[in-house]
Structure formats: C-alpha cells, structure tokens
Amino acid sequence: MVSSRANSTSSLPLILDVEDFKGDFSFDALFGNLVSELLPSFQEEDADSSEGAGAHDGPFNGHKRAPSDTVKLAQEPLFPEVDALLALFKDSCKELIDLRRHVDSRLQSLKQDVATQDANHRKTLAELEKGVDGLFDSFARLDSRISSVGQTAAKIGDHLQSADSQRETASQTIDLIKYLMEFNSSPGDLMELSPLFSDDSRVAEAASIAQRLRSFAEEDVGRHGINMQSAVGAANASRGLEVAVANLQDYCNELENRLLARFDAASQKRELSTMAECAKILSQFNRGTSAMQHYVASRPMFIDVEVMNTDTKLVLGDQGLQAGPSFIARGLATLCKEITETVRKESATIQAVFPSANDVMSILVQRVLEQRVTAILDKLLIKPSLMNLPPVEQGGLLQYLRVLAVAYEKTQELAKDLQALGCGELDVEGLTESLFSSYKEEYSEYEQASLTQLYEAKMEELRSEAQQQSEAAGAISRSKTTTNPSTHKQISVTIVTELVRWNEEAISRCSSFSSQPSTLAANVKPVLNCLLDQVSQYLTDGLERARESLTEAAALRDRFMIGASVSRRVAAAAASAAEAAAAAGESSFRSFMIAVQRCASSIAILQQYFSNTIARLLLPVDGAHASSCEDMGTAISQVEGAVRRGLLLCIDTVMAEVERLLSTEQKITDYRAPDDGNLPDHRPTNACMRVVGYLSRILEVAFTALEGLNKQSFLTELGDRLHKGLLNHWQKFTFNPSGGLRLKRDITEYGDFVRRFGAPSIDEKFELLGIMANVFIVAPESLASLFEGTPGIRKDGLRFVQLREDYRTAKVASRISSVMAEA
To answer: Where is there biased composition of kind Polar residues (predicted)?
Structure first.
C-alpha cells in the first residue's frame, strides 16, 4: 500500500510500507501504482488488460499522490514525464533502502529474542529430563518391591496349597485306612462296611475307593510275597491284607454286576444318561472292558437267530447256492447296506454312552466281521473237491469262483464303510483278509481246474456237434467214395475268443485277490499257461484234423492210380474217380488254408490279450514277464509246426493235381506238330491253360489266408516244386522247332503266373527256362554259341537238347561236344 505524507527530499511525497510486500506480492502491480498518476496512458492500458483478463483480485501494492502540474507535462511532446519519473524512482529507492534497514533491524531483534527463548527452553528440557529420570528410578524401585511381595505371596500360596493337599491326602489316607480295616475284618464278611459302599447314590465314589484299596492291597501282598523268600516270618505280616484283597475282589465283582444290571435295564429303556453314568463308573473296572463286551454281545444281530436266518434268506433266496452270482451279489449288497446302517445307529448310541467310544466300536466291528459276516460266508463258500468237480450244468467250479469273488468284493466294501464309521485302532483290512485266508490258499489250483473244466466241456460240446453232423451225413458219406472235409469241425475264432474271455475273467479275480505284485504274478502265470496250453492244443488239433483230410484225399488219389495196360472202360472209371479225388483234395486244401487263416487270427487275439492285459501285471516282478513271453513263444511254435507240416502237404496235393493235369491233358503233338504247311499255333497248350487255371483258382484262398513269412515260404516252395515238376514233365516229350516255340509260350504263361508269388528266385528260374527253350528253336550250328552265351542253362539245357527231334540226324552231340566236355 502507498500513502502520501511529507518528505523533505522529494517533491513527490511517497511512502512505502512493509505491509505492501506481504502476501501475494506483484512487482508489476507496485510499479503500476507508482506511475499511474504520472502516466495516464499506462493506467488506461492496464485497465484494458484488466477488462480483457477479468478483475484483478490481488492486493494493491502502492499509492501515489499526483502533483498539480501533471496535465501540463502531458501536453508536452517527447515524453515530458521522464523527470518526474526519475524523481519518483529515486525517492522509491530511498524508501526501499530505509525499509530494508528497518526490516534488518527488526530481524536482528527477533533473532536475539529467539536465542533467549531457545536457551530458556533448553534449560527447561534439561530440568524435565532430570525429573523423568528420577520418576523412572522410583517406578523401578516400586516394581522391584511389588515383585518381591508377589514372590513371597506365591511361596506362601504354594505352602498353603501343599499344606492343604497334604491335609487332604492325610484325610483321604485316614479314610482309606479305615475302609481297608473294614475290608480286613473277616473273610467274606461284607455286612459291616461303611454306608458309602451300600449307598446307590455314591456308587461312583465307592467304586473309585474300592479300586484304590484293591490296588494298594494287591501291591502290598505282592511285595511281601517276594520278601517271603528271605524272611519266613513276613508271611504273617501280609496275611491280613490278603483277606482285604479277597473281600475287595468280592465287593468289586458284586458292584460290577450290580452296575451291569443297571446298565442293561437302562439299555432296554433307552435311558442314555443312566447308561452313560454306569459306563463311566464301569470304566474303572478293567478299563470298562466288561461293559464294552457285554454291550456288544447283547446286540440283537448277534443273539437273534431270526436275524441270521434273514441274512441267509436275503443272500441266497429260495434257490440256495444255485441262485447265481448276480443274485447273490445283489443280496450281499443289500445285506452290507443293512449292516452298515445298523452299525451307524449303534455308533450314535456308543458315542453318547461310553467314554472310550473308539474301543467299543472296535469290538463291535470285529464282532460283526467275525460272527455275522463269517456266518454268511460259511454258507456261501463251500469248497468243492478238486477230485470230484461239480458238474458244469450246475455251474461247475466257475460258479464257486464267481461267488467267492463277489463275496470278497462286497466284504471289502463293507469293511471300508465300517472303517469310515470309526473303529479305533482295529486293523479292519487285515481282519477282512483273514476271513478269506483259507479260501485264497488254494485259489490258484481252483482257478486252473475251472479253466480246464470249461475247456474240456467246450471240446466235448464240439465233438458232440461234429458227431451229430457226421451221423446226419452218414448215408451220403457211405454212398460216395470221396471224403468230405466239411464233416470235420473247423477251427473257430469264436472259440478262441471265448477261451480268452474265460482267462481274462480269471485274471481279474487274480488281481482282486492279490494285493502284492509278487503274489499277483505268481497267480497270473499258471492261469496264463492254462490259456496258452488250451489255445495251442485247440489250434493244433484243428490243424491236424484239416491235415488228416489232406492225407485222406492223397490216399484216395493214390488208390485210383492205374497202369497203362487197362481197358478203356476201366480207364474211364479210374479217370472219373481221379477227378473226384482231385475235387476232394482241392476242398481239403481250401479247408486247411481257412484253418491257417483262423489260426493267425487266433494267435493275434492271444498276443493282443497278452500285451493289453497280462504284460502290465507281470512287468513289476523281475523275470516274470520274460518267462511268460518264453512260454507264449513255445505255445505259438507248436502251432507253427503244425501249420508247416500242413502247408507241405498242401503243396504235395497241389503238385499231385498239376502232375495229373499235365499227364492227362498234355498231347505228344503239342510240342511236335506235323509239318503240314499250316501256321504254327502260338497259344499256350491246353495242359498249360488247365494247370494255370487250377493254380489260379486254388491259390486264391492261399493268397488270402497266408501272410508274412508263412506266405513267402509257402509260395517259394510251391514255385520251386512247380519248376522241378515241369522239368520232369517235359523230359517225356520230343520237340521240333515249332514245338519249341509253343513250349516257350507255355513257359511264358507259367512265368507270368508265378510272378504273382513275389519270389525273385522263382522268377529267375522261369526266366532261365524261357531261355533254355531256345535249344529247340535255334539251328544246330547255333547251339554252341547259345550255351556259351547263357551259362545258367547249361546243366538243364544239355539234358533237354537231347529231346530235339533232329538230335541224331543233325549230329547235335558232335556240335556241342566242347560244351559237354566242359560240363
């Protein structure tokens, strides 16, 4: 704020106050207030800016009083206010300097005041700290005295408590001695006892005192009894307490019986509070064992015969053991549910009555398993004799094993439910296992015997069906001279699947009965061996039956072989019989190939079953898996041996028919056509077409039935035999050049057919046959070069070249003498 007053140094009286610099100080505002009267234009610009920006809310920082000649100066040109402004600024500077001095003086005075006050404050704080330290010392002394007084009071309290305890103990001891003297009065005399021992309202106290007296007296008698060995006179010292011991025993027994009677009466009325009171008192007698056992034994499910009969009726129904495993399983499930519910209700009562509820539950659950469950198991599981097996029509051993598995499963479930209800430290799982220990000892033998019984029954059924089919076709079979392989029962994959299913069921039972991997492996291995033996036996027998039909067809074929010197009528009849024998052989061949195919499917099912089910059970035990793999390999090798023998017989059958067709269809003129001027026939011979047609027809089933190495070895052997058979056959003929061309055409036909075998060695042999046929086609003088250019045909070619029609006339031997010499 600027106010006007007299100033000796300036014509423009200007006063600056310290208050002008407080708050939101603005130099622009201060400057504007100083020059506003000397420079009206500045004031107008400032007003314009204020209107544009809004009203100025800041404090007014100065005020100037305008002189009288301001108007005149404003009319002068070239800024005439400069002198007035200079004077104004000089005065302002002087004022500011005076203000600064004034402010500095005030600041100095304030600093002195502050220093004085600070010194006084520090002095006061020092005095307060001394006072607080003294106060803390006083409190520490007071706390020490209080602690000392408290310790003294605690010691006094401990002494008082000890004295009171000693007084109480002395009083109790006096009472106990008095009571002991009463019991020590005379043997069997319980009439002179204190009222405490006959007051029903103080039974708990009487029981506690009687137990304490009894414990003391028995301990004293025992101690003196030991000392009697060194001091004979000590016998008299303990004789009185022996009377007390006998009387106390009689009293405790009488009191315990009285409490049990009261407990029973309360139990019949369902007075849980009275039962709990009696149980609490009885817990002082042998930890309440008699009360626990008495309560459990009095449960209706253990003493009511009707309950036991109902259990049997529920599980077995009216049919007894013939009810079937599914019916028995439903009955056992219902019975286990009923037992669990009964135990649950008893558990609620036990929890409300007995102080040691877990001990009572342990006794109850043990009694349930050992009495109620064992009773039904004894009626369910009657062990059959392995020497006299029950008939399959009545379920056989499988019925017993299925019932055993169901009973074991349901008993395990019941044990888990009872365990969940709580049964203390009772080993429910071990107790359950002990119920089945006698059944599990011979379980493996029963399982093997059952599988054997099922297999024999199935085989007997198949034999019976085959016999019926044979009898039905008996008249037709007797009227024909051929064998009918369809009367032989073929191998069925369904039968093998059924064998595997029986074994899988047995393995599942093994898994249920065996908790340890070693035990499981020991049970699984013989059961698996049963399956391997059965499948091997079934497949081998089926293959042997199929092979027998091949043998019968071969015998029939040999039976109708005739010589050359027979009549035409006999020859025609023999040819007809040979055709029938050939048809029988072809049918037997097809039957054997179907048997091989079903064997392969059966072995695949067996291997898949081993991989999916058996392997995971044997792998945890060292050596078990490898041993079973070896057993399986042995079983499969037996089947493969039967297949191998049958396939060789199949090849014999095929080659016998090939030879028959060649011998009957091949004409002499096929390879030595007359030179009649007609064009040579480039078609395969009729014999070749018949043989290839027969092979194509009969091997179609072989291509489908065989696979892998069996197929490869069979076709390779057949191709080799066909090659040898053709060589032997062609050695019976004489060839001219046109016949050689036709032979080459036959060889091409045979080669195209055997190429389907996929056997490179056979393809190569027939390719050499095609080259060898050239020995009948080329000119005699070119034979030597043919043998030299193709060494592979030399051995057979030298034999076949002798079959040339012109071998002697053209002196072929001399032309190839050098080749023959090298051979």
So the answer is: 478-488
User: How confident is the model at residue 479, as a pLDDT?
Assistant: 45
What CA–CA distances, in Å, run from 249 to 175, 226, 255?
A: 19, 21, 10
- What angle do helix axes 568-609 and 493-513 make, rounded to 10 degrees? 20
Could you give the CA distance from residue 415 to residue 423 in angstroms, rounded to a whole number?
10
Bridge-based pairing of strands 2-3 and 15-16 is antiparallel
Q: What is the mean pLDDT, run by run of 10 residues, along the chain of 823 residues?
A: 40 60 72 73 54 43 43 53 80 85 88 90 88 86 86 83 75 62 56 57 62 62 50 44 64 72 81 81 72 83 84 81 83 92 90 86 90 89 88 88 92 91 86 90 92 93 84 55 53 94 94 90 94 95 90 75 52 68 85 92 94 93 93 94 93 91 89 69 89 92 87 93 94 90 93 93 93 89 85 83 87 78 64
Question: Pick from 241, 246, 237: which is nearest to 189 by CA?
Answer: 246
Contacts 24+ apart (CB under 8 A), 164-169: none
- For 516, list phi and psi in degrees, rounded to 5: -95, 140
Q: Classify burial at 11, counting beta carbons within 10 Å of its beta carbon; exposed 0-12, middle 13-18, buried 19 or more.
A: exposed
For residues 158 and 165, give the distance between their C-alpha atoms in angstroms, rounded to a whole number.
Answer: 10
Neighbours of 54 (CB within 10 A): 8
Residues facing residue 735 across a β-bridge:
804
Instruction: Give the DSSP letter string of 331-388.
Output: HHHHHHHHHHHHHHHHHHHHHHH-SSHHHHHHHHHHHIIIIIIHHHHHHH--PPPSSS
Which token pair is 437?
């220990």
Helix (H, G, I), strand (E, B) or coil at 58: coil
Phi, psi of 15, deg, nearest 5 = -125, 125
The answer to whether 624 and 525 have CB atoms below 8 angstroms apart is yes
The span from the CA of 407 to the CA of 400, in Å, is 10
Task: Please state whether the predicted TM-score (pTM) of the whole model is above 0.70.
Answer: no
State the DSSP code for 16: E
In three-state secondary structure terms, 410 is: helix
- CA angle, residues 54, 55, 57, in degrees to nearest 5: 130
Q: Is residue 717 within 8 Å of 699, Cβ to Cβ?
A: no
> CA dist 400 to 7, 407, 672, Å?
138, 10, 80
- Residues 482, 584 contacting (CB under 8 angstroms): yes
φ/ψ of residue 184, rounded to 5: -95, 5
What values do phi and psi take at 735, rounded to 5?
A: -120, 135
Largest CA distance in the chain: 185
Neighbours of 154 (CB within 10 A): 10
3-state secondary structure at position 510: helix
Amino acid letter, 565:
S
Cα–Cα distance list, 254 to 21, 210, 707 (Å): 113, 12, 91
**pLDDT value, residue 187:** 56
Buried b vs exposed e over 588-618: b needs ≥16 C-beta within 10 Å? bbbbbbbbbbbbbebbebbeebbeebbeebb
Q: Cα–Cα distance between 818 and 380 in angstroms, integer?
A: 95
DSSP state of 614: I
> What's the CA gap between 179 and 580, in Å, rounded?
119
Question: Residue 38: helix, strand or coil by DSSP?
Answer: coil
Beta strands in 618-711 (DSSP E): none
Q: Which pairs count as long-range contacts for 445-448, CB under 8 Å and 24+ apart, including other chains?
A: 445/386, 446/384, 446/386, 446/397, 446/400, 446/401, 447/401, 447/506, 447/509, 447/510, 447/523, 447/526, 447/527, 448/526, 448/527, 448/530
DSSP letter assigned to residue 77 = S
Q: Report the alpha-carbon distance of residue 814 to residue 93 in Å, rounded.
A: 159
Neighbours of 27 (CB within 10 A): 8
